[in-house]
Each structure stands twice: as C-alpha cells, then as structure tokens.
# Entry
Amino acid sequence: MKFVFKCLLGLFVLAVVLAVVFFLSLDSILRVMIQHNIRAQTGLVAQIGKFHLGLLEPVVEIKHLQLFNSAEFGGAPFLNIPEIHVEYDRSALKKGELHILLLRFNLGELDIVKNQAGQTNLFALGVALPTKKSAAGSHGEELAAFKNQTGLDFKGIDVLKVSVGTAKYIDLQDPQNNHEQKFGIENQVVNQVKTTADLTGLAALVALRGGDFFGSLVDQKSSGLDVLKLLGK
# Structure
C-alpha cells in the first residue's frame, strides 16, 4: 500500500513539475512554432526575439521580429519589426469574433530588393496591388475573405498605433539605384478600423513621407503594378 501511495505521489509531483515547465516554456514553444509556420507559409527564414501570450491577460506580444530574404534576393533582412503588441477582447474571441482593443505595430525597416532577374522581393511573396474592381469591393466581401482565412468574424480595431522607420531600395542589377528613405512616423493613431478604407489616411501619410521612394518599385515590364495606387497617392 505504501509503495502504491509513493508511486502515485511521485507521479503527481512529476505531473506538477511538467506542468510548471510547460507553462514557463510556453512562450518559447510558441515562438519556435510561429517561426516554423512563417517559413512554411512564405519560404523565408524568420527570427523572433521574444514572444509572449498572456494567459491571465488578453495580450499577445512579439518583439524583434526579422524576416530574411531568400538567396535569390541576397539573403539579407527583408523586414525588421521591433514590436507587435495586441490587446484583444477575450469574450468576443470565445464567440468566434476578433475584436482588437489596441494594436501597436512598429515597422523598423523594410528592405525592398530587386534581384538579377529584375524581380522584386515584395511581389515575389505574392503582394499584389488592388485593381479598380477589387478596390471597389464591399465591406461584406472583405469580412467574408477574412473569415474564410481565419475562421473568425472581424469586429474591428478600436485603436491602431503605427510607427514606420526606414525603407531601403536595393538593386542587385545596378547598385547605383540603391537609396534609403526615413519616414519618422511615431505612434500614428488610427481609431475604429473596420475596413481597409479606414487606413486611407495612414497610407497617404506614408506616401507623403516617402517622397519619390515608391516610384522605384514601379516596374511595368516585370510586374505591371502601380505602387502609388496602393498608397493612395
């Protein structure tokens, strides 16, 4: 009887220890999983300095996220995001709804690379600009697309704070075309974001601070896309 009791007690202690180790390691486990998923989705290597999922508070934080270009685009950093901070409505999430109370997004640096074949890394990831037809799409179509991708009903972002640091254009064919643009946007606030149309003012500010930088991305031969339309310029 004592032997059985000791075995059960030992198993109970082991279970408690494993549970504690799991919760202490949860952020690290999720960080590795997210890095793996980004690689699977985009083909690009991702590094996350810190990931935190609040268990007692509805908060998600990602610190020092870096996304690296593939070898054909030089392998250098593509995106440097010092912070993504999300505070969400937990009760809404339980109902299958995504209601974000606060989203802080800090884009430290974006490196746009044109490779030897004349392709641009931004468009190689499948980032396409909206056509006149898609730009005229209804709010309902946007929500339907979001739910199809995530399984959640998007209820909006109460407060969005965006910071944008630096963008670089790197031409591997002709380095003389290389240039850099500092935006200097710090915690630009956009309230009540429910559709992409609510980001028009932010896009206009980015375009204004960018000067002629985005003109470097327009390549009618390779992409047939007009970047300035995306930014509302």
Observations:
- DSSP finds seven helices and six strands in the chain.
- Residues 1-42 form one domain.
- Residues 124 and 223 are 10 Å apart (CA to CA).
- The chain has two domains: 1-42, 44-230.
